[in-house]
Structures are given as structure tokens and as C-alpha cells.
Amino acid sequence: MHHFEYRDGTLYAENVSIPELAREYGTPLYVYSAATLRRHFQAFDSAFKGLDHMTCYSVKANSNLSVLKLLAEMGAGMDIVSGGELHRAIKAGVTPEKIVYSGVGKSEAEIRQALETGIYAFNVESIAELVKINEVAESMGKVARVGFRINPDVDPKTHPYISTGMKKNKFGLDFENSLRAYKMTRDMKGVEAVGMDCHIGSQLTSIDPFLEALEKLLDFYGTLRDLGLDIQYLDLGGGLGIPYDAEEPPHPTEFGKALGEKLIGLPLKVILEPGRVIAGNAGILATEVLYAKSTPSKNFLIVDSAMNDLVRPSLYGSHHTIAEVVQHGRPAKMVDVVGPICESSDFLARDRELPEVMGGELLVVYSAGAYGFSMASNYNSRRRACELLVDGDKVIVARKRETYDDLIANEI
Q1: Which CATH entry fits the domain spanning 4-32+280-408: 2.40.37.10, 3.30.70.20, 2.40.170.20, 3.40.190.10?
Q2: Is 342 an active-site residue?
Q3: Is residue 33 helix, strand or coil?
Q4: Where are the alpha helices (DSSP H) in 227-326?
Q5: Could you tell me which residues come within 8 angstroms of residue 284 by beta carbon, excluding any fewer than 6 positions away?
Q6: What is the dihedral of CA 39, 373, 361, 358, to 10 degrees?
Q7: For 223-261, what is each residue's pLDDT tens digit?
Q8: Among the options 56, 198, 342, 386, which is catalytic?
């Protein structure tokens, strides 16, 4: 249950109707369900209760402070990839010792910021980065805890843009260079090698790629132990998928059971970095139909949401279920749902069968809680949407809609 349901033909987020929210706050409008976020985090975290583990929510999926604060209050750690995400996590009340820092391009300033904050560990993605972290930590009189992101060359069977664990991807180190990096740390004063990291991709619909990667990592773990290294954590990343369309991803309990069978008894803290599986189906995008337009070859619904609000369909060809907010029972026809941006790639759906909708009526785009607002832009000088967090019958303005003055506030 995702706490978005129809009552007498009208869509509700928990106990608040979407038309009521749209009237008060306008559209495009992101709406998140607090109950769904809590339920998803609890379902994921509890799946690994037999293991010493830390669930670090992937901030990039949805970085709104209200969302981060809700998850932090449930005990979540955070997986970050930038200084901005670190700043957000701390502002949301996340314990620094529950923050892991991933990403291929950490700057010197970001490394310094993280060391000053006292994060749990850096997941290092290149030997050059290792050298930089050592230099910065030494200059500060600190020792950085590090693990290396190992690229196991496993095909995650997902979209190539969100595949991250194959030889051709920019992420991580192969086993040969990982071994070289671990050996280097023994002669460095500013770092301590304490972990192993692996993230093979996003929107995975099978646990088999995870288990294939894990087998390789556990073999490598034995090699590191033989070198005398005290490896304390194994970070398996995130990537568990959600049903956008007809996908049938595994439940976290299935994932937890499979990992437990492999890892039980090993002196390793398991770190997991779920993002989409927590936030994806906890959010919707409400949009108003501006115009219905027909050409000799196509029917279009032109809505006030665009690729700057939700870029996934344009960027990945991703499917998001779209439906009426108020069900009128009209006959269906094939349409393209498109936005106002001056690009042919500005669409939310193509060749989609939807009931006939009139101008001024509302549509809902489902599964928009992850990689929705967090990937939004101001292209065409469009203001970014308002974000709401609904908790029962309480509505929290998690982010105000931008104003035109906001668009030019930093320009001279």
C-alpha cells in the first residue's frame, strides 16, 4: 500500500485530496506520503535484522530536508555524493557517524568538509582520489577511514545509463587496481583502509547480480585479510528496483535472506544504500492539463509539467503510470502527454491510452518520489515545483514553489 488511493473517484494522499492540494498550492506539484516513506524504510531495514548493518538512504534519490529528517528520525544513515548532500544530511539531523561518502569526483574542499564533519567513511573510487584524501587528512592531522569501490564487472541487466559496475563504467576500481590501492594505504599516514564497497547499478529487478558481485567480493575479502588489513565493513550499495510498469523486483526480505546466508558469522558491518526503493513510490507529481491538441497523426495532452520537472522519461525513456486525479469514466484514447518546453524530447508519456481529459483537469504521474525533483532544473526559465509532505491529514510545505525573483537571485 502506497497511501495514494481513490475515494469516490478522487485521488487522495493519505487523508488529503489531491484536487484540494492543487487548488491551494498550484501545479506542477510533488506530493510525498510520510506513511509510505516510513513503511518502506522499516520494510527495508528490518529485512537485514539478522546482520550487523547500517541502512544509509541514498540522498540523491530525493534530497528534500523534510524527507531526510523523517528518515533520520527512524535511524537512517545517509549515502552522499557531494558537499551539498553532506550539508543537507547534517541540517536534517543525521548523525555524522552514519554518513558514507561515495562518488568519483570529490574535490579537496569536499574532502576537508567531510573530515571536519566526522563522517563514517569515504568510498574511494580511484588511486588519485586516495592520494588526495591522504594529503588532505595529513594536513589536518586526521586519519580518514576509507573503503574502495570495487568494480566487479557484473552486468546488472538495467538501463545502460544507470549501470555502474561493469568494466566500461566510470565508477570504481577493478580488482587488480583495488589490491594496489589497499596495499598503498599501509604506507600512508592520513588514511586507514577499513572497508569494501560495491554498487553495480540502479533499478535492479533481480538479486542474482548482487549475489554474483558478492561472491567476488568475499573472495577478495580473504585476500585483504591475508595482507593483514582490518576490513570492518562491506558496502553493497543500493539499486533494488521498484515497479514502475510491469517490473517485478524482489522484496527486500528476499534480498536480506540471501545476504544473510552468505554473510552470517563474518565480522563485517553490512552497509546498504537504498534510495529509489524507499522514496520512489512514496511520491507523485500532480499536473494540470492546459490543452488537448490533435494532429492528423497524434493526439496530445499538453500539461503544465515538463522535462525540467521530471526528466526520467526524456532521459531514460522511463515509464511512469499516468492517470486522472478525478475519475470521470470517459472513453480512452491514445495520447502523448507532453510539456511546454521547446524540445521534442519534452514528454511524460508517449502512445499512452488514457481516458479523455479536458483542459483544466488534473493528471497524476506515479512513482515520482525518487529522481524526480532531485533532478529538476530551471530550463526555459521555469520555476521548480512546490514539494509537499502529507502525514495523515497534516500538510507540510517541504519546499515552496520558486518565484521569478528566485530564478535571478544570484545573477548580476
Answers
A1: 2.40.37.10
A2: yes
A3: strand
A4: 252-263, 276-279, 312-316
A5: 4, 13, 18, 30, 31, 364, 365, 366, 367, 368, 369
A6: -120
A7: 999 999 999 999 988 878 887 877 777 788 888 888 888
A8: 342
